[in-house]
Design goal:
The protein is α/β, with parallel strands linked by helices. It is built from 25 helices and eleven strands. It has helices spanning about 10-35, 40-65, 70-100, 110-140, 145-170, 175-190, 200-215, 265-275, 295-300, 315-320, 340-345, 360-365, 370-375, 400-415, 440-445, 455, 465-470, 485-500, 505-520, 525-550, 555-565, 570-580, 585-610, 615-640, 645-690, and strands at about 230-235, 240-245, 250-255, 255-260, 285-290, 305-310, 330-335, 350-355, 380-390, 420, 425-430. α20 (about 525-550) runs antiparallel to α21 (about 555-565).
């Protein structure tokens, strides 16, 4: 193979990809912290990143000749700007939310999209510009430098950055320490560029290093301000954890949301006594999460065994350390995902009490599906009870809320003979196979259980009228909430718009018009590449949501999943670059292979369901990314492999990915479910197959 001297540009491209991917993953975690772990935000992040990256790549065509002529010095300055922008972006994500929006207020779809777009714009635009600009710098030195080599160098850096972040950095370093670590190779690679060091390059490097060091040194001070005194802060593998004291109340924040208070006695009595009053002798209890003061109420029943499940080991230790969870005799703390634990334990419990927040994310939704209810039912002793809750409702129940409650009640009803909704501070669902009694104050009195709030306050509040009002609102015609078809997530998405008086129609209309205008202007090979980018990122999002549904800790594993979807691109691009046969047929073959992979994955989802091993997801990601990587150099070659064709191809790939990430995350998965979303992607690639068959090579 012919060798080309690029003056060190390829090393810079590898280092840029290495740093950029790690920056992207750091920012995903930062956004999840700011928006309560809502996975829809992941789609908005990827969308904005890809749109601005594609815009930057398209802009490189004009800028590189008219304004910024190819130069190693300019490339060095742009790379140093990337370093500085990465630090500024994380600071902006942390601080701007409470400056722009009211503290603690729910933010609508359009403000969230705008916030993400503004904070991502500088870095994403510049990183998209740098890739084709680097190709121009390399071709200034070697005129015949292949565009595919830059693509392969960028892919190699992306894979390395995602892998190092996922398997090393995320376990040991804080966000700003990660930024420092991943940018050192980039700064070192700039020293190897062929032109001698000058003052401008040296000054840019000094400013970049200063920004990185300052961020790492003042990490704690760059956190958003909390009301009260911050007692503890750490970046756990599963999220950001903060412990804050205010007015004598200690609160544990997880991803920016107060998840546990030192005392919440009224809610603690409801969550414990409403379900346990139904059981004659609750000797073995399983608690999935907790509320403040809950353990003191549980202790009144003198259970033989209490298993407390908390996914994050660090969070579990902090709950004990700061008195948020009081240890009980016979209590076992299990640091594992609750569904994973139930799928393996042989123990049968007299009661399973779920104290998790509302199912507004895919991670939480998996504890409100038929799959979880069936799993819980199989681990209940005869006469056992399962309880879980939603936020309380007043006299008026909105249509969206009614559908949510109905879906939950109907889903639980497929597993239990009796499901009763009991209103209180939270609306508790009591599920068991034996009849459920509503005279809870009397039951507690018979058991000799002393309570403060239920006995004195609720005795006249738990009336037959209030209970009937809530239960009569359940519509038996509303469908179930399933793991692979998350109806509650669809309703949460619709409710998100309804709460803020918004409609997705305008966004969909503007986006559709922009996409149509873009499609009219591109060539057939670029259209194929656009669908390839669309399917690659869409399959990645399907895999992310599938993993979240099955395993429930995407905050830790998202880097691994991104890694496997990048790992196949490099060998695929290498194979496509060396291919010398009929390129049109090769593109058609790649499309058919992607169709087949997607259909097979949909079948595996239907057959395996909860039993799908994680390795299947990783293997699927590798295979899809290999096929997508294989098609990129083929499109470049049939388009002429000029600098203009390279910029257009980079742009088409990124724009296609931007379209795909929104299509699958905001439309296909919430409204059609994972299986049909996957089959729709297969249909997109089938259409691409027909277009590929009409391509005529230009060189």
């Amino acid at each position: 193979m012919k060798r080309f001297d690029d003056g060190g540009v390829s090393r810079v491209v590898v280092a840029t990809g290495f740093a950029a991917l790690a920056v992207q993953l750091v920012c995903v975690r930062e956004y999840l912290t700011q928006f309560q772990g809502n996975e829809i935000v992941i789609a908005l992040i990827f969308f904005c990143w890809l749109v601005f990256g594609g815009t930057g790549a398209a802009a490189a065509r004009g800028f590189r000749t008219r304004i910024l002529r190819p130069s190693p010095t300019i490339l060095t300055i742009l790379s140093c700007l990337l370093v500085i922008f990465s630090v500024g972006q994380v600071i902006a994500i942390r601080w701007l939310r409470d400056l722009v929006f009211l503290h603690g207020r729910s933010v609508g779809f359009y403000p969230t999209l705008g916030y993400v777009a503004v904070t991502i714009l500088p870095y994403a635009l510049l990183v998209g510009f740098v890739l084709p600009y680097s190709l121009s710098v390399a071709r200034q030195r070697s005129a015949g430098y292949p565009g595919n080599w830059i693509y392969m160098a960028d892919s190699a850096g992306d894979v390395a950055g995602a892998a190092v972040f996922s398997f090393v950095l995320v376990h040991w370093l804080s966000p700003f320490q990660v930024l420092l670590a991943v940018h050192l190779p980039l700064l070192a690679s700039l020293l190897g560029l062929e032109s001698a060091c000058n003052r401008r390059r040296a000054a840019a490097g000094i400013v970049a290093v200063a920004a990185l060091v300052a961020g790492a040194a003042f990490e704690d001070r760059l956190l958003p301000v909390r009301e009260g005194r911050r007692l503890y802060y750490a970046e756990s593998r599963y999220g950001r954890i903060e412990v804050v004291e205010s007015g004598g109340q200690v609160s544990l924040f997880s991803d920016g949301v107060p998840s546990l208070f030192s005392q919440d006695p009224e809610l603690a009595e409801e969550i414990v006594h409403f379900p346990l009053s139904q059981v004659d002798h609750p000797g073995r209890l399983l608690l999935v999460s907790a509320v403040g003061g809950m353990m003191a109420e549980v202790a009144k029943y003198r259970p033989e065994r209490v298993d407390y499940v908390e996914l994050d080991p660090l969070a579990a230790r902090l709950q004990i350390r700061f008195g948020l969870v009081a240890p009980l005799d016979g209590m076992n703390i299990i640091t594992q995902d609750a569904r994973a634990y139930l799928s393996k334990t042989p123990i049968h419990y007299d009661a399973i009490l779920v104290s998790l927040p509302e199912p507004e994310t895919y991670q939480l939704n998996r504890f409100y599906t038929a799959g979880f209810f069936e799993l819980a039912k199989n681990h209940l002793a005869p006469g056992g009870v399962l309880s879980f809750g939603m936020d309380g409702v007043a006299d008026y129940i909105s249509k969206t809320r009614q559908h949510q409650l109905s879906s939950l009640a109907n889903t639980a009803g497929t597993c239990f003979n009796h499901v009763l909704l009991i209103p209180g501070q939270r609306l508790l669902f009591i599920c068991r196979d034996r009849p459920i009694r509503t005279d809870i104050p009397m039951l507690l009195e018979q058991k000799g259980i002393e309570t403060r709030y239920i006995r004195r306050y609720y005795a006249g509040d738990l009336t037959a009228q209030r209970i009937s009002q809530v239960n009569d609102a359940v519509d038996p015609g509303i469908g179930q909430n399933l793991d692979l078809s998350p109806r509650l997530m669809r309703l949460a998405f619709v409710g998100w718009f309804a709460r803020h008086g918004e409609s997705p129609g305008w966004f969909a209309l503007v986006l559709s018009a922009a996409v149509l205008a873009y499609l009219i202007r591109i060539s057939r090979p670029q259209w194929v590449l656009l669908t390839t980018g669309c399917v690659n990122i869409s399959a990645e999002m399907v895999t992310i949501f599938t993993f979240q549904t099955l395993y429930g800790y995407i905050y830790l594993q998202i880097g691994v999943l991104v890694t496997v979807f990048l790992a196949g691109l490099l060998p695929g691009a290498w194979a496509g670059g060396r291919f010398t046969g009929n390129r049109r047929r090769a593109l058609m073959t790649g499309d058919l292979l992607l169709c087949l992979l997607l259909v097979l994955f949909a079948l595996v989802l239907v057959v395996a369901r909860q039993g799908m091993p994680a390795m299947v997801l990783y293997g699927f990601g590798l295979a899809v990314s290999f096929c997508c990587g294989f098609q990129f150099p083929l499109v470049l070659q049939v388009s002429g492999d000029s600098a203009a064709a390279a910029a257009k191809s980079f742009s088409a790939d990124l724009v296609g990915a931007a379209i795909g990430v929104l299509l699958v995350s905001l439309v296909l998965i919430p409204f059609l479910g994972l299986v049909w979303a996957t089959l729709c992607l297969a249909g997109i690639k089938l259409a691409s197959f027909l277009v590929a068959g009409s391509i005529h090579e230009t060189s």
